[in-house]
Structures are given as structure tokens and as C-alpha cells.
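Posting here for the record, re: MTE.
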Amino acid sequence: MSSTSPPRGSAAPHPSGRTGGRALAAARGLVSGLLTVGLATLLAALMQQVGATSGQPAPIAAVSGAFIDRTPAWLKDLAIAAFGSNDKRALLVGVVLVLAMGCLLIGVLATRRSRLALTAFALLGAVGGAAVLSRPEATAADAVPTLVGTAVGLWFLGRGYREPAASDVGNPARRLVLGAVVGGSAAYVGGWLGGDSTEATASREAIAREPARATPVAVPAGADLDVPGAAPFIVPNDDFYRIDTAIVVPRLTAEDWRLKVTGLIDREVEIDWATLQDKPMREALVTLACVSNEVGGDLVGNAVWTGWPVRELLALAGPRSGADMVLQTSADGWTCGTPLGALTDERNALLAVRMNGEPLPFEHGFPVRLVVPGLYGYVSACKWVTELKVTTFADDVGYWTPRGWSADGPIKTSSRIDVPRTGATVPAGRVAVAGVAWAQHRGVSSVEVQVDDGPWTAARLATDASIDAWRQWVLDWEARPGSHVLRVRARDRAGNLQSAVERPPAPNGAEGLHTIAVQVA
Ligand SMILES: Nc1nc2c(c(=O)[nH]1)N[C@H]1C(S)=C(S)[C@@H](COP(=O)(O)O)O[C@H]1N2
Ligand SMILES: [Mo]
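Prediction output follows.
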């Protein structure tokens, strides 16, 4: 291999002088672009899977997204008129075509003005990177895939024109094919891993810009006690626990989403996103809890959910007598069986479309999921929901039932100490002991704390915001030096005292009192 530059000005001994040479040079530009985009797409998908980025799309999608955001309304309308719901796909094709043209030209340019060509290529990469960074919620890490992809593309392009013509005729062509295969496979795998995130991201961002039309929920001022270190009353989306079986998070567009009601009903009903938007939405405070949560664990969280009561959809379908369960199915095939009654009674069982005011994050079920107060997630909170089959517990089972978990999953009255942390050393004197307690759809009526073998002392409760939401509590403890054990228990409005008997999560939820050890200095 030689590092000699091609002769400048004269193309005589170089293949670019011939038509075949120029085609080869153009192809080299194209393959360099494919490598860049392919590797950037793959890397973006991988980084997104491990949570290293904020989940911004690869450069092509980002450029398209940035373009949409800056498109005047009349052009948008024109595009929708011309391409209908394929307008975003048309835009993507357009961006790819323009990029491909640019790369072809750069490839040809590289044979004569190599430095200019490399600069132009780097500029294209910079535009892609800038587009990624311009997306809402983007962080610096989101630009890394585009940077790496551009570096590899530049290297490939630079290598190509440095190759002396005499070396071997088969070699450059073979290298081009290899580059195209690597770039193409990376793009394919990246696109698959990213789950077609391009259109889905654009779809979600468009919804994020729409105002939420719902009767707002009132969160009373005293619902959050603001004790440092304790869980906030409303858990931000980014901090919310996530549990599902999805290796690749489904990324649907709202436009492609459909939900059908089937089974033991009077008439089949199918709704799409537009239909759902016209329904009267409401906001509700609901605390989700995972049946796998250990005593003291953090697989529980509270959020404001916006949605349409699912009972109204079921009423349109008309469940037949004899039905006692609804088998919910997700876009990725996961299922759960929910008691029909919990979806038809007066509670706020919602077809949720927003979480804390934002469109559902992809990880939490975009575009639509179920949120059912009082039931563990594994029997109720289907994300990416696509079908509700009205059926019976005798005829159907949800995903987790044959895997050792109960068919029924009402949430157990529970409580947790957030501060101090177990094992902590605290100064003697007044110490705030604080945490949360939950008894969804029954409501928490009291929380008590016990220090060592002392009496159970009532904690101060935060203002009750909803019987479906958790409740913060705090106790001012006069801490004396030494080792101490603290435990907590809650009582619900139905009169149940939290169970002190220790039971593991399987088959229907852990029991026992959260107990911590602290040192007082
Ligand atoms: N499609 C789908 N929905 C699902 C699950 C799943 O595996 N797939 N897991 C459920 C379980 S076990 C819980 S606890 C909740 C968690 O919801 P979150 O990830 O939004 O906190 O989602 C439920 N919905
Ligand atoms: Mo769960």
C-alpha cells in the first residue's frame, strides 16, 4: 500500500481519467456515505438500547425531524395533501436522495480536489450531527454515533483516492463491495434494533407539540412533603421504573396504531389514534406497582396519566354476560388478563396517552397503554396495547400466569422508608424519617413507625391527593446515640393493616414490613 497522493491537475495515469474510473470514484463517495449512515444508525441504536443516549434518532431521521420542525405550515399541508400519512416517509426518501447525490459528487471531486472533497464530506457529517443535537432533549452523547460514522466514512473516502491506479484493478472494486456490505448491514441491523424509530420519533414529537386536551387533575399543595432524599410525590418520567419483556422497545407511530375489542361482545370495535383524540380525556393520579417489588424496593412510582376511560370503549363493544376477564395484548405479543370489573367500574382505568403531561415515553408504552388503579402492572398495565379480548379466566391466561404468578393481582397495602437509608449514620437529635405508603384504590389512612421495640408512633401524612396514589409520610424522630432498627407499617381505608408476615414477591406480591438499621452518632 502506498501513501503517495494522486497527481494533481493531471489525471493521466489515474483511473479517474476514464469513464470507468469516474464511476468508481462516484461509487466510492456513495459507499463512504453509506458507511457513515449505517454505522451511525447501528451505534445510535446500540447506545439507545443500553441507555447511553437520550434516544435521539440517527442522523437521517434527525435531519428529517429538524426539517419538519422548520417547515412552514403551507409546505407541510402540501406534503400531507400529496403523500397523505406517508408524508414522513416521503421526506425521509427525499433526504436520503439528496445525501446520495452529494456523496456521488464528493466521490468524483475526491479524485481531483481531495482536500475539498474531504472537507465537504466532513461538513455533511457536521450537518447530521448538528441536526441530532437540535432535537428536543438531545444530549452531547447523541452526536457520538454521527461523529464516529463520519470519521469512518472520511477514512474510507481518503483511502480510496490515495490508492495508486497501478496497484490492482480488482482491489478497489472489491473494497467498494466490502464497504457497501458493511455499511448496508449496519444500517439494516441498526434500523431493526432501533425498531424503525425514525417515524415513531417524529410521530411522538408531533404529539408532544400538541396541547393536551383533558380535564386537569388537581394536585393539592401539601401532597409533597419535600423531605430531602425521599421519593417525590410525582416521579419524573426519566426516573420512573420500567419493567417489561421487550428486548427491543416497540416503536409504533400513533398514525399506525389501532386498538380492537374482540371476543365475547355484541359488536367488534376498532379505534385509531384520531378517533381516540376526539374522546373526552381526563387526567388521573395513579401509582403503578410491580408485583416483583421486594419489601422496600423501588419498582413502584406515581405519575399523572392522561387518557380515556376504557370502560367507555368496552361499553361501545357491549361485553356479553359470562365474561369476567379482558385479555390485553401488546404490539410485541405480551399479554395480561385483567378482571372485567376493574375495567368497567367507576375507577379511573385509562387508555393512557400521556405520562406527566408528555406523550408516553416509548419505554412506557407509546402511543397507548392501560393504567388500572389497584392492580399490579403484570395483570393490568399493558404497554403498546393493540387488542382487548373480552373473555373468561377459564378460557384465557396472561403471559405471567403459566410462569408462576397468580391470575389475580390486587396491590397489597405497603409502605417504605426512604430516609434515612438503611446502614446510614445520622447525628443525634431530631431526624426526619420519611417515605411513601400505598394502597391503590382503597387509600392510605395511617402510617406508623416503630423504633427498636418501642411503641408504634403515628407519622404525619401528606395531604391526600387520590386514593389511587401513594402518600408521603414523615416522622420527626428524637434519635439517641447507638444502633437502632426502624420499621414502618400502613393501614388502608378499608381497615386493612399492612401484613407483617414475610412473603416473597411470587406468586402475588411481597409482604412484610420495611425494616432498616441506622447508627446514631
Ligand atoms: N407490553 C407489555 N406491557 C407491560 C409489561 C410487559 O412486559 N409488556 N410489563 C408489565 C409490568 S410487569 C409492569 S410492573 C408495568 C410497568 O410499567 P412501566 O414500565 O411503565 O413502569 O408494565 C406492564 N406492562
Ligand atoms: Mo411488574
